[in-house]
Amino acid sequence: MPVSLGGQAPASFDLKSVHLPLLALLLKSGDLDLLRREFGQRYGDQPDFFDHDPLLIDLQGLSGDEALPDLLQVSELLRAHRLRPVAVNVAGDAQRAAAQAAGLPLADAPLLTRQGKAPEPSASAAPVAVPPPPPVPAPGALVIDKPLRSGQQVYARGGDLVVMAMVNPGAEVIADGHIHVYAPLRGKAMAGARGNAQARIFSLAMAPELISIAGVYRTSEVPLPEALHGKPAQVRLLSNAEGDRLVIDALST
């Protein structure tokens, strides 16, 4: 017969399972100098880009024969950019030992992918055409009404950014979601700043110094085709077996 056992909950605490939003740094090279240089190039002029965000260091992107970076030095670099390493995702005993030597907890999770990136279809699956979403800003998006001058920077943390006036050369617009510029875009635009590969950039006159989605970027050193330069266009990220690349499409007006 079933037996019911009485119990008493602690008065001072409860233990609960929670899911925390984390950034993940997927290391693709064990070259610490290269990491320090590229991190500085990407975030060095944006000291307030991160706000002491918790971060997972993912080592599964390193090949088995590649030298592991000193995770203590990696952690110091990340903290200097206002990031807080909280765990390491490992593959193999060497990476496990490196994490433990650095005093970082282990998080044995599957290999992480870009936020919003769907799994690759199987070879037998028929391709399905998915139309792009219309350029409608999400509720609660940050809206900027005034032109942005050189040296100005606007960051829509956790959402979309809508700019109703010109983004001049030398200005920067950054968003964790989409970026909509209903005017000429002549400065820098970085959408999906925290890894959202589904983010897009829209402008009524696309002529940027730099465009970036989820860290994949293109500068004005590679000029836009004449049919797109200064015209209504959108930028999206295309990911496939050959890698990631930015695709720029004309918008109908």
Automatic annotation (TrEMBL):
The keyword Ubl conjugation does not apply. Coiled coil: none annotated. Pfam families: MinC_C, MinC_N. Residues 143-237 form the Septum formation inhibitor MinC C-terminal domain. This is Probable septum site-determining protein MinC. It comes from the Bacteria. Keywords: Cell cycle, Cell division, Septation.
